[in-house]
Amino acid sequence: MTAGKTKLVMAGLVRPLIEPRLPEWVEPHWFMSKDEALELAPMAEIGWFDMYDKADMAAVIAVATQMKWLNSIYAGVDGMPLAQLKKQGCMVTNGAGINAITIAEYVVMGMLTVAKGYRDVVRAQERHEWLQDSPGKVELYGSKALLLGYGAIGKLIEERLKPFGVDVTIVRRTPGPTSLAPDAWRARLGEFDWVILAVPATAETDDMIGADELAAMKQSAVLINIARGSVVEQNALVKALQDKQIAAAFLDVTTPEPLPADHILWTLDNAHVTMHLSGRAQDKMFLRSATRFFENLERYRKGEKLEPLVNLDLGY
Q1: Do 206 and 239 have their domain in common?
Q2: Is the domain of 178 the same as that of 122?
Q3: Would you call 5 helix, strand, or coil by DSSP?
Q4: Neighbours of 91 (CB within 10 A)
Q5: Per residue in 155-206, pLDDT tens?
Q6: Active site (catalytic) residues
Q7: How far is CA 73 from each of CA 47, 148, 289, rounded to the nearest angstrom?
Q8: What global pTM score does this model have?
């Protein structure tokens, strides 16, 4: 170790993107396993500990007690020891917006897939059967969507739906002509053809869609969740789908993940499970993350505000 240098600890998988561009004042340390990360984390002033297993990731972050800046490619920080990070004065930057384009495109794909019955078209092709009629006859044009969550992803969803002629109503703290206040959307659920969840996973949003909300939706409505599985009470959703209380659900996220092979959601014809692939349906994630990291690294050196900075009290 070199005295006076800022110690950076991060996954070796992104080393080719990062190492050649690191300035002289940074001393990098790379890990390839959880055990290596646990060994290196206590020395980190800057950490980038993204792991597929969020419990492993949280365990590593918990021992990084000298860390002053935690960077993550993930938009959600649920599961991280936020209280500890706040106590030690650690700033957290997340991946908000990194995958926003592809996730917004995934929402449009999901809506079109359900509207046009495209899954049945694919199945017919696999059977070598020439369909005489379309299995889906819904048009996006003129339909109404309720968009819960108006961050980077939510804004891009709205932007992409407007050219389709979808009437989008957003939920925000300052209501307006095309928006609802946080306490007003439940009373209006019955008006919408699409209910799109793009909220952060926090205690406030846990189970925000449950039996009462599903019962208030139109029977022809479709629920789209690209947020987190925790924002939907999944057992209530299963029952609503079984009873045809709502028309369908397009679920990029579930509880748990991966969804067990014997889970009933796999078997429901009106449930579309897309295995949390929306953010991965692109090839620019790591390039965008590296660019953002180096922009923030320069800000960190100068003592400037990092972006996007997570509010450790709010959890997003």
Answers
A1: yes
A2: yes
A3: coil
A4: 19
A5: 999 999 999 999 999 998 777 888 999 999 999 999 999 999 999 988 999 9
A6: 228, 257, 276
A7: 12, 22, 6
A8: 0.86
